[in-house]
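pls ignore typos typing on phone
nicotinamide-adenine-dinucleotide + seq
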Amino acid sequence: MKNFTEQVIVVTGGAHGIGKATAELFLELGARVIVFDREQPEKKTEIDNLIIDLGNLSDLESAVADVVQKYGRIDVLVNVAGISVPNTILDLELDKYFTTLDVNLHAPLFLMKHVGKIMVKQSYGRIVNLTSIHGKLSEPTSTAYDVSKAGLEAATRTVALEFAECGVLVNAVAPGFVATRMSIVNGQDELESDWFNEVYIKNKRLPIARPALPIEIAHVIAWLASSSNTYMTGQTLTVDGGLSVRF
Ligand SMILES: NC(=O)c1ccc[n+]([C@@H]2O[C@H](COP(=O)([O-])OP(=O)(O)OC[C@H]3O[C@@H](n4cnc5c(N)ncnc54)[C@H](O)[C@@H]3O)[C@@H](O)[C@H]2O)c1
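k done
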């Protein structure tokens, strides 16, 4: 794995799950890591935590400015923070829809703008956006989430084009099932349910017959974010244990 020594890395959603594993991996690889999250992580580490609700889009520019003032540069931005609020289209209320879109799509998009400005000036940067297999595949009750992830994949492509000649590479990682608290719906962990075991494990719908661990996603993010990625941009890398390959 590449060394990130002296690099300054912003990870959103780094208090839990995939973001936490990613922030800790970058720390291990020598980076100075700043987490943007609305929650304080449980464990105290050398990670710098900025408590922010990313849904408040007007706060993003000053949060980025604070990082630049303190650290002088930003080499990597990883947009991990996300929420999923299941609702059928008939039950979907405007405020819930916009909260999902603001956190999952608009915040990453405007962070790409504010951080991108710094990266273009530096002539170096790597951006990785967390989408989902929901960017391309759908299930009932998931309209807002699906739209947000498909939108983020589109934004990844467009921003990649705009930054391609500036040394700034922009990609997305689309996981399938990952063992985090996001899989807990109404108090039940769907990855531990009889339904999941029957459909995905016993019936072999999920070829690698288990959910991913957050660190398995973090390793893919880290490669895309590293200086050894020199030619891949505008892409979404699916990391789903083969789930979306099976007919
Ligand atoms: N877990 C999965 O199965 C799975 C699958 C595909 C994609 N994803 C995506 O991966 C990303 C991370 O998910 P996870 O499973 O680690 O979830 P998680 O709930 O464990 O972590 C999400 C993090 O985002 C933070 N966050 C949420 N809303 C925020 C806000 N408004 N402001 C600031 N921080 C906020 C939370 O506090 C938390 O630390 C999300 O974008 C999610 O859509 C997850």
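The radius of gyration is 17 Å. Residues 94-122 form the longest helix (29 residues). more later
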